[in-house]
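Quick illustration, no need to memorize.
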Amino acid sequence: MQALYGIITPSALHFERHQSGVPDIDPAHHELLLDGLVDRPLVFTMEDLRRFPSKSQIRFIECAGNTSEDQVGRPGIDPQRSHGLMSCSEWTGVPLRTLLGEAGVSPRARWVLAEGADASRHARSLPLEKALDDVLVAYGQNGEALRPEQGYPLRLIVPGWEGNTNIKWLGHVRVVDQPYMTRDETASYTDLMPDGKARWFTFLMDPKSVITRPAGGQTLQGPGCYEITGLAWSGRGTIRRVEVSTDGGESWEDARLTGAVLPKAATRFSLAWRWDGATATLQSRCTDDTGATQPTREEVVAVRGLNGTDHYNGIKAWYVHRDGSVRHE
């Protein structure tokens, strides 16, 4: 992550998360079944899907457990190890609402169940409102076909929601009247709170940012001018403001948002900084267009505790030492 420029993650460098390995799927024989509470159950081949008008959109995908080690007090030593389970790509495919329109959705429908064709049949329930909004049935990434590790030949893109809802190797979408409470949304992907209760269906990824240069594992070559740069993103909408502190949060300065600023996509920020050779603590915090602002670790832990570690979005600190080394402590 710290070696990248701009906001697009090259396809070969997109983070990977598998429930049961990467299946070997022949696209000539792969089909998507759409059934359940619909007027006309349908089966789409890959050729069928490519006949629909395509749509491309730049969106991030983030693992729900990204940065969880920072929450529990074991901060990642560099951006990749602390925040590397987030990547941003241009995805191409067919809006799910288009396919649902072809099938005709029953008035009783409230949810959809999306299932992968991997060995575990990883499945998640999604509210119908989201399915009809901005969910994409994607076959392309960054101008090429999906790679096997990213769901080839077909996957869901569920903008702004936790990565596990973006079902890879998509083979089945069933329209239903309630969430199915699958293994992957009961035994996993719940948030255990301090009172012992667990929150279900906490889909949204809240605003988060990280400085990628200067950052852990890097060294400043003596006092002088440097660019502080990093990435910010929010599943709630568009990043509107990023602030940077060089004194551990005592004061903040607005960074410049560079390049494209898109909804539910990574946003690059930059701030010119003159290092005087003294110790410094670098931090960033972002605010999106809903008004949600990135909290401190202490604020997150006060509400969520340390039992559930998904969806952590606390402010990350990098410490610049007098010898120019930048570390996580």
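The mean pLDDT is 97.
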